[in-house]
Amino acid sequence: MLSKLSALAAVFLTKIVLAQDQCNLLPVAVQSLPLKVQSGNQTICERYTPSNQTQYEWISKLINLAFTGDYTPLPDLWPANPNGTYQASGILDPNSVYRDPCFTVTPINLVPYFNGTYKSNNRNGKPVALNFLDGGGVTALQTGVPAWNPNSNQYKMLTGFYTYFGVLLGCSSPAFPPYTGSPSQYQIHKYMDLKSPEMHYFIHNVYDAALTLGVEGPDLVTHVGDAISIGVGLDNVFNKKCAPPVKVASYQPAALQDMCGDDGTCAKWDFPNATCALYNETGFGTPPALADPASPSSGGGGYCGPARYGRF
Fold this sequence. Notes:
Elements: H1 2-22, H2 44-48, H3 55-68, E1 74-75, E2 85-86, E3 96-99, E4 105-108, H4 111-114, E5 118-119, E6 121-123, E7 126-128, H5 137-141, H6 153-168, H7 185-189, H8 196-212, H9 226-238, E8 289-290
Antiparallel strand pairs: 1-2, 3-4, 5-8, 6-7
Helix pairs in contact: 3-6, 3-8, 8-9
């Protein structure tokens, strides 16, 4: 009898710990990159690129889907809606919400970081306003291209996303172009003052896109699956304050990667190798200023869609 009670207590405590972790209270160790499938030695990109597509085409479709939100209805992992579904709406939906497993609902609008509303982009160590939706915005992405204009900021940003996620997900084809951007996502994003719900929302859209493209979804009992590996992997590397430097691309040096700058919401790396002092630069954790009237037009690019929901 006592052994049964002990086993039940262990299960109960395990569930409490898991719930706390899902609410972003307990940081966990960075998993190895590139991200691999949970059964076998293939990477995510190697396993799930269809035979009739190149790895670059598959990654491009994944990223475009994450931004546009053109997903099929997906299983809803929010505890308040067991066995239900939801229709996600993409990174560029200005009217979204993020729901964490602790039943907190947060309005989300990431569009101002992309369309030049904020001075949130790092250029030569200074925050500037740049419109990254100047190549057709969502409409262009929905046609399967990064942008209509190859000279646009949008084209450069999206193709950068393609090559970077190719590294993260292990695209190994010799024809796959290398990532040539900054090795530090912290340096790129340090003037954005991103909050934890915003980070989780972005990550969850990548997860949703992966599910839509056939990446193995979670077992609703164990919550294990290759798509979960993507979400948790991105969260561990890029969404933990004070995280130590991480080498993402094998041909680049290890660098700081945390993008979550808000002290009030971002989970802190709580292991002995925390490196908070390295992130203590001017601008990190400070809300971005609005662009000057003379800055590039904020333009459009977002759209009104159904509310979306999150987990990671």
